[in-house]
Design brief:
The complex is a heterodimer.
Chain A (H helix, E strand, L loop, with lengths): L1 H36 L4 H5 L6 H10 L6 H13 L13 H36 L4 H15 L2 H15 L24 H7 L3 H38 L2 H8 L4 H31 L1 H6 L5 H10 L3 H29 L9
Helix pairs in contact in A: 1-14, 5-6, 5-9, 5-11, 6-9, 7-9, 8-9, 9-11, 10-11, 11-14, 13-14
Chain B lengths: L4 H7 L24 E6 L18 H7 L4 E7 L5 E10 L2 E6 L5 E6 L13 H13 L2 H9 L8 E5 L2 E5 L7 H4 L10 H6 L9 H6 L7 E7 L3 E6 L13 E6 L3 H10 L4 E3 L3 H7 L4 E6 L5 E5 L9 H10 L2 H8 L5 E2 L22 H10 L7 E7 L3 H18 L2 E7 L1 H10 L5 E4 L8 H8 L14 H10 L9 H15 L3 E5 L1 E6 L2 E2 L2 E2 L11 E2 L1
Parallel strand pairs in B: 1-10, 1-11, 3-21, 15-16, 15-17
Antiparallel strand pairs in B: 2-3, 4-5, 5-7, 6-7, 8-9, 9-10, 11-19, 12-19, 13-17, 13-18, 14-18, 20-22
The chains are: A mainly alpha, B alpha+beta.
Chain lengths: 346, 535
Amino acid sequence: MVTAITSRQCRAVLGRLAQTVPVLFGVVVISFLLTRALPGDPAAYFAGAAADADSIEQVRESLGLDKPLPQQFLIYLGDLARGDLGQSISTGQPVASDLASRLPASLELTLMALLLSCCLSIPLGVMAAMRPGSAIDHLCRVVVTAGVSLPTFFTGILLIYIFYYLLGIAPSPLGRLDFIYLEPDRITGFYLIDAAIARDWETWTGALKQLILPAITLALFTLAPIARMTRAAMLTALSSDFIRTARAAGLTERKVLFVYAFRNALLPVVTTLGMVFSFTLGANVLVEKVFAWPGIGSYAVEALVVSDYAAVQGFVLAMAVLFVLLNLCIDLLYTAIDPRIGFDAQ
Amino acid sequence: MKTSRRQFLQMSGGVIGASMLPFLKSVPANAAGNDVLVAVIGQTINSLDLHRTGTNRASYQVAINCYDRLVSFGTREVEGGGLAYDYSALEPELAESWEVSEDGLTITFKLKSDATFWDGSKVTAEDVKWSFDRSVSVGGFPTVQMKAGGLVRPDQFEAIDEETFVIKLDQPSKLTIPDLAVPIPFVINSRVALANATEDDPWAMEYLHQNPAGSGAYKVARWAPGEQLVYERNDAWVGGPLPAYKRVVLREVPSPSTRRALIERGDVQLSFDIPDKDASELASKVDVFSTPIDNCMHCLCPNSNFEPFQDPDVRKALAYAVPYEAIFKTAAYSQGLPLWGGDAQIDDIAWPRKSPYYTDLDKAREHLEKSAFAKGFEVPLSISLDLASWMEPTALLIQENLNSLGIKTEIEKIPGANWRTAALVEKRLPLHLENFGGWLNTPDYYFFWAYQHGHLFNSSNYMNQEIEDLVSATLHMPMDDPDYAPKIKRMFEIAFEDLPRIPLWQPSLNVAANGVTDYEFWFHRQLDIRPLKPA
């Protein structure tokens, strides 16, 4: 029985992945066209401070931008097929290696922030739903409103000001590691994981310390949707018939709350979590700037500003792939949370 | 550049002890010892090779700190404190001496016989030739900058023997030797480069982009674009006095507020290129070096392609309408030098200099009424988003005053990537702000780029035959030629009369130091770490 389900699921996952191919192709076409439609001229920009018309032409040629658009697109497709995302002009590195070094930095920060955020917002939402209108409900409302209404760069600078500048508790906001540490040997790109694998606990602590302030900043910002969604979903679940039945049947309050109400309330929360995750990953540019975090958001914005085509396309493609995978994970989670939902129906 | 942890620690080996200190755990940054400097910059270093297409300005410092040129400039004290390079004093770097032939067409350099590259091999004239050939051949900015010194073709360079290098010129020029001291003509280890060159890439652009091969004062120990660059001192350097710091850690911190917190706390010792606002506020807390940038000015440019600006009275009306004082206080926080309210009489050849204009709305109105546009007109005032920190407040203040004359302006903000195309290449912005600065510090050089017709920074489409002739005559003329000063003064007179560029102020480059002395300002506006010393 169990194995049968697993193989069916496997097939379904493969089917889903196959469905994403046209989506990704669409993303490739659109990102290519959109970057070309940007009103900037990368050749003029990268030719440097004192370039004349001739040298701009030379640069245009060396970037391959003198060729007609369809030809450029075919070259791009050919490169993609070989797994080559091109060369970023602004960082001077292959886009693939840029993404490989920056994506884990962003993921580590975002995941940490979401973890913190969930630890705080889900209990807060549950408690608020259990006693609507009570002090805890009001507290929940105040915390999430404050969190979402303070812009992240402001929270970030404020936290730096208090914990680093005034109190001196936090480490220097110098990115992923203070300069006195060396980054751990690269395995996953996540410093916490790599340092743990290398059993280098001093570097691990150093990396964790650097993570705390930016993670709190982001967590504060993401509290609101999760807490509000938890509260709403819990309220709906608690007022539904099956909870009344369960209570009437004399089940313990604990069992009613966690086994019946909470599990049913989880579905919308997981959906929200997926959305929050994807927008946080792209939107933490400001936090990255404030904490000198070498993440993917600031990379994309800088590339966009200077019309660095390859980097922008690579970023869009990476995010599309990530989003596809994320949705797949969430769908799988659904079936785990609620057995009534069949994977095929998705 | 990839180095494993072990290799990296070995690199600093030999002098284990002090140079190991920064990587001992739990040593606070500010106690890292006197031979390690931690500096922060706001930009990112995107290449270790200045000649590569797409290398950004922040990366020029690698060429400065890791490579040598034949010559360099001396040091002078700046009025108001601090040190700066001295354009008038050429000093040897890789060259031991040089000689200019009587006709000025041949320059013969003798190289220092003890100069070696990092790999221990001798720096030869052949290396110099290969590097110079590369500069004039790769195209783009390096080639343009070499051309400014009359260096155009590889056949102008000749390696006579191991230590003798000769440059042949088509015409004598006072700009040639100073142009050898700019970051571009740096000397590369040609054997290493050639060993890594390919048929498609004869100049080893791919290799040197990631792996510098020079003879300079510092080597690159680590480079993580977007994060940091770590310099390690080359103890065998003969280009100048041995630098004080064994290791310099340069961290990239984009947010100016974060950089400010770091320098104030003393966790970093130097913050390079800080905003004018921070410079004015930090001066009481840490050492702030605010040096006016030579041969550079912020100006308002009326484009002569736009009809009203073809009328000289309209341009003068603009010049009298600009609220100079308010702009200098609001946009520059009074950092830099004022460029308004000068004498009408031109007695010397200093540039940038104060224009004879000042804020006087009545005079502005008088001029406008004399023109064909007495009722005013509408014009967009364009600014670059990349330079919004000074351009935006400046534009707003100008807009207000022009409005009271009946000239309606709408501020048009152009993204950085389009700015160069619109302002400098297509030169299609009717009224805009601009800030060219010339590396070579002579007025004729500034006029060559910004006032001669068709040249890149002449974004006003200015064309005056007398200026064309004067610039061409003075560009290569020695500055002690009796004809030089009168011609330059005449150029100034025309520039202030015709006003294709209305000078606003001379900006400054601001550096905050907390525990470092001997910072030197350089025309290339990048951090030269070699003269720095612990306080």
